[in-house]
Design a protein that fits this description.
- The protein has 900 residues and is α/β, with parallel strands linked by helices.
- It contains 32 helices and 25 strands.
- Strands 4-3-5-2-6-7-1-8 form an 8-stranded mixed β-sheet, with helices on both faces. Strands 10-9-17-14-11-13-12 form a 7-stranded mixed β-sheet, sandwiched between helices. A 6-stranded antiparallel β-sheet has the order 22-18-19-20-21-23.
- Strand 12, helix 13 and strand 13 form a beta-alpha-beta unit.
- The radius of gyration is 43 Å and the shape is elongated.
Length: 900
């Protein structure tokens, strides 16, 4: 593909001092054509270059670019990279509690910050904060899959003004085309740029106690046949699992280091470091560099040193997980990127975090424990970790090593390596903040249109496409039937159908009466049969002589039977012999006239005296058969005669029914019944369809109801014309309490706003206020976590007062089927108060079971909330001042986040 003119101009200035890949050319061409792009390519393939191109273009034209990331750590990394690449004066950062050069041409931010900016303007309009923005880069766009935060990406795409180009950078997903089509619908023309090319190809290996083997066949489509013959085929035993030192030795000997060794447990990561802590993986020169850089770090941050982590680090071995002090994790990341650390034992959060590629990734287990139980890894999870292997410009090959365990082996590894990526799913969920912010700038009807623009709605519509097609076909058939029944009185059809239904009942009753009458005559006949002589006329129909109508025959002979009933040999009027028993005699008649004039006929020799046997007669018996009358007087039970009369009357009514004037009544009734059944089925299907397509809107309305009841929304107009869609014509005003909640970002903005406006926190000192705020944003802890610190009496009292408000909100949410969390943690938050009062970090950590990383996370969440409070309208100045003072008390090493 030819480059665009502007790209040629840039390339002449050595904008990119290397040849671009095909997908990069295609993406740049699409951007120059004025389209947004979804760039879907493997990790490490060079997707970021597309974002960098938009920055170069904006700087050249005097425009701006927003570069969004899912994580603060990734935003900080991009800030460092872009400052070096584009100049410090051109790059800024916004991450909630940090604001650096916010008016810069290139502004790096978390995606939540961008979404919050969009809340401040009418959707589709360019507010002051977006002035001059040409493009927004949505890095790691596949975070839409994130259960807790995926909504933010969908909102950002829906609310972004259409004149701003979107550059969505995503790892490979199965439904990139659907994502692109959805963005085209809600934002504007968008082109999919898809590539499965990896600049550094991956090779997959499998390690067991037998050794290290290629996992796949030569064509990379199926399992290596050699592995099928080994114990590593599936579930193994402890003997099949390779030792950790043994595995690292394989990697070291085959020049496959540095490696990220993924383990789905913090404790097991630390155990792995301890297990190999005596192993040294660095050269003397690398060891010297490590000593220098680590001791420089510790000189600046003496509190960061940890027993058990330092010595392995100096030998090129480290752990990386959420329980580790963030400052120490940052050091590990820097040293790994510098090639000084040879193996990092990490949880999978590293795979979704900052850019930290390795030559090899080791995936220690192919299953993990989740909230839903123990399960096999998803393809997307496996690909995310695998994608960290292979450093562009450094490695010719990247290696992915899977490991035999008791639960999985080569078969599961080969499946995950060849199955392909998972599709993106929507996690769109309305929140109180969404409701309050949208209703401040939009009518309810406009808001509904925005909510129903979600990716989830788009996918639901695609999923229900066959149902929609069925509805279309059924609707057409319904219209056709309606035309055929035009002019036909519905009541006539119902009346005719009632007569037909009654006719069925009466006919069934007649059948029953006939059977009863037949059984009665059969009983009488059986009693008389003992005295019957040859020449007696009989009516035959029964167990052995099966016929529609009784057969008239003459009794020729009787023979003893196996039971009480004798065997009867009879000749019928059609000159046919029958062998039966008393069970086959329906009725006895008068003897056959002139029977005595004939010699008793002899049955044919081949006629076996076995009930049910039948043979044709001969010429001799034909003369006797001719004497048998074709019919004899039959006894009719009075109840049968009476029932036949009723049926005759019904038949007359049906014949003379007015429906006959419109055509064949049976066909009309059939069409009418089909019409009614279709009408009912369509109604049910449409209701089910509506419930799927309006699910998000119903959730939104539930939140509106709650917000009205707590005083955050006030209804201004009421529709009274009985319109079913009246709710969409209502107008709501956001009250001061609602404006306060709308300005807050959290898991439950309403709860945070109610707590701040409750008055329960007004009399706390700054350190106590920080502790109370921690209670509002800290998730309920595990029961086995502990701290030696106790809550102060003042904080305990404030939280007790808030407990009543929490109970009321919980009950209200429960009634409206809303499951947003309402945190009010008490067990561990005393840590926050002690930290605010100046307790040393080491002392703080010694008085709790929490890992250092968890303590930092709790304090940073508290800081994030405190940093919002000064900007919340309608709350007291005292709370704002306390928030400022609390921030100053808490925001110190190792809690504070520094950006170089």
């Amino acid at each position: 593909m030819n480059s665009t003119p502007i790209l040629k101009k840039f390339e002449s200035n050595n904008l990119f001092p290397f040849a671009l890949d095909r997908f990069q050319h295609e993406a740049i061409a699409a951007l120059e054509a004025g389209r947004s792009v979804v760039v879907c390519a493997p990790t490490g393939s060079g997707k970021t270059l597309i974002g960098e191109y938009t920055i170069h273009r904006a700087l050249k034209r005097g425009g701006r670019v927003f570069y969004t990331t899912p994580l603060k750590a990734l935003s900080n990394q991009k800030l460092r990279d872009f400052r070096q690449q584009f100049g410090e004066e051109n790059v800024g950062l916004l991450t909630g509690d940090i604001s650096i050069n916010r008016d810069a041409a290139v502004l790096v931010m978390t995606t939540e910050i961008f979404r919050n900016m969009l809340y401040g303007t009418s959707i589709g309009a360019v507010g002051t904060s977006l002035h001059g923005v040409e493009a927004v880069v949505l890095d790691e766009c596949h975070y839409m899959n994130d259960r807790q935060r995926g909504t933010v990406w969908e909102e950002s795409i829906i609310y972004c003004p259409p004149e701003i180009q979107l550059v969505a950078l995503s790892a490979t997903v199965a439904n990139a085309g659907q994502l692109t089509e959805w963005i085209s619908q809600v934002h504007g023309p968008t082109q999919l740029i898809y590539s499965d090319y990896r600049p550094v190809p991956l090779e997959f290996y499998f390690c067991s106690s037998k050794g290290l083997f290629p996992l796949l066949s030569k064509d990379h489509t199926k399992i290596n046949q050699r592995l099928i013959k080994t114990p590593g085929k599936g579930r193994g035993s402890n003997r099949d699992e390779p030792g950790l030192i043994e595995l690292l030795t394989h990697l070291h000997e085959q020049d496959m280091l540095p490696a990220i060794y993924f383990i789905f447990s913090r404790r097991r990561c630390d155990d792995a470091v301890a297990q190999v802590s005596d192993l040294s993986l660095v050269t003397p020169k690398e060891a010297e560099q490590l000593h220098k850089r680590v001791h420089e770090f510790l000189a600046k941050n003496p509190e960061a040193e940890r027993i058990g982590q330092l010595q392995p680090l100096l030998r090129g071995i480290a752990a990386h997980h959420a329980g580790i002090l963030p400052a120490w994790k940052g050091l590990v990341e820097e040293l790994f990127q510098a090639g000084l650390i040879k193996v990092v034992f990490a949880t999978e959060t590293l795979a979704a975090g900052i850019n930290m590629p390795a030559r090899t990734t080791v995936i220690s287990s192919l299953s993990k424990r989740t909230d839903d139980g123990h399960r096999l890894l998803k393809a997307s999870e496996f690909l995310q970790m695998s994608g960290r292997a292979g450093r562009r410009g450094m490695d010719e090959r990247g290696y992915v090593v899977t490991v035999q365990t008791r639960f999985e082996g080569a078969k599961e590894a080969a499946y995950l390596a060849t199955v392909g990526p998972d599709p993106l799913v929507s996690q769109f969920t309305p929140t109180y903040g969404m409701v309050l912010n949208l209703l401040q700038t939009h009518t309810l009807e406009e808001t509904k249109e925005l909510v129903e623009s979600s990716f989830g709605q788009y996918l639901a519509t695609l999923h229900l496409q066959p149902t929609l097609q069925d509805i279309s076909k059924q609707t057409q058939e319904l219209a056709s039937l309606k035309k055929q029944l035009q002019g036909v009185d519905e009541d006539l059809c119902k009346g005719y159908q009632k007569l037909r239904d009654r006719m069925k009942v009466e006919q069934q009753l007649l059948k029953t009466l006939e059977e009863q009458a037949l059984e009665s005559t059969r009983t009488i006949a059986a009693q008389a049969l003992s005295t019957a002589e040859p020449g007696q006329l009989l009516s035959l129909k029964g167990r052995h002589i099966v016929t529609k109508e009784p057969i008239l025959a003459v009794l020729v002979a009787k023979a003893p039977g196996p039971g009480k009933s004798p065997i009867l040999v009879c000749l019928s009027q059609t000159n046919r012999w029958y062998v039966g028993t008393g069970l086959d005699v329906v009725e006895l008649h008068e003897p056959l006239p002139r029977w005595n004039q004939f010699e008793s006929p002899i049955p044919p020799g081949e006629l076996v005296l076995k009930p049910g046997q039948s043979r044709k007669g001969n010429e001799d018996t034909a003369a006797i058969a001719q004497l048998i009358p074709s019919s004899v007087p039959t006894f009719y039970a009075p109840e049968v005669v009476e029932q036949e009369g009723r049926i005759a009357a019904l038949q007359a009514q049906l014949k003379d029914h007015p429906l006959n004037q419109y055509g064949h009544p049976g066909t009309l009734v059939k069409h009418f019944k089909r019409y009614k059944r279709l009408e009912s089925d369509l109604s049910k299907v449409k209701n089910k369809l509506d419930s799927h397509l309006t699910a998000h809107w119903e959730e939104f309305l539930d939140l509106i109801n709650i917000l009205q009841q707590v005083g955050c929304l006030r209804q201004l107009e009421t529709q009274t014309d009985g319109d079913d869609d009246a709710i969409e014509n209502l107008t709501f005003e956001v009250t001061p309490l609602g404006e306060s909640a709308a300005a807050i970002r959290g898991d439950n903005e309403l709860w945070l706003g109610l707590a701040l406006m409750s008055g329960c926190l007004e009399w706390l000192e700054p350190h106590q206020f920080a502790c109370a705020c921690a209670a509002l944003v800290t998730e309920v802890s595990r029961p086995d976590n502990w701290t030696n610190y106790n809550l102060s009496r003042e904080v305990e009292g404030a939280l007790s007062q808030l407990q009543g408000e929490r109970r009321q909100l919980f009950q209200l949410q429960h009634r409206h089927r809303v499951a947003l969390p309402i945190w009010l943690e008490r067990q561990l938050i005393a840590i926050v108060e002690e930290w605010a009062l100046g307790v040393e970090w080491t002392e703080l950590c010694a008085n709790t079971s929490l890992d250092e990383g968890d303590i930092v996370r709790m304090l940073r969440r508290t800081l994030d909330f405190l940093s919002q409070i000064p900007y919340v309208p309608h709350i007291s100045e005292g709370l704002k001042v306390n928030a400022y003072r609390a921030i100053q008390m808490i925001n110190r090493f190792p809690v504070n986040e520094t950006v170089d």
